[in-house]
Design goal:
Blueprint: H1 9-30, H2 37-43, H3 47-53, H4 57-86, H5 94-115, H6 126-145
Helix pairs in contact: 1-4, 1-6, 5-6
Amino acid sequence: MAVSPRRGPAEWLVVLCGVWCLGLGLYFIFLRPPLLPEDARYMGADLQSLQAAAPRLATWLGKVFTVMGGFMAGTGVLITYFGWKVLATRPPWATLVLVLVGAITVALMSVVNFTLNSDFRWLLLAPPVVWATALALYEVRRSRSEP
């Protein structure tokens, strides 16, 4: 007899983070402009000066963001799958995997955006908070299900 998955709020929150990461990746591939006003502000230059100094900068950044967006989207697919299929089975080491993936993806992104004084830094604080909440809920439920 097959065991039915036990999905709770933790699994749904991880899935939400995965879908968000997939969406962010697609944004970077298809919609993000090569340079945002905050990018030029951080570099202490205006967009026209940057274009004059490096005429192919925008083209190069477009390619960089396509690659980066692909990795984000692919990671989002894996996170979504992990949250939906794997976490529900309560495998050993899942907590460690969640900690590592969250630290390397959403937490690192948030920290860097704060160091850059990004216009989006407060918005980008939400994914690590959601991730940490999912991790806490997962651990509570896991510890209750142990003999």
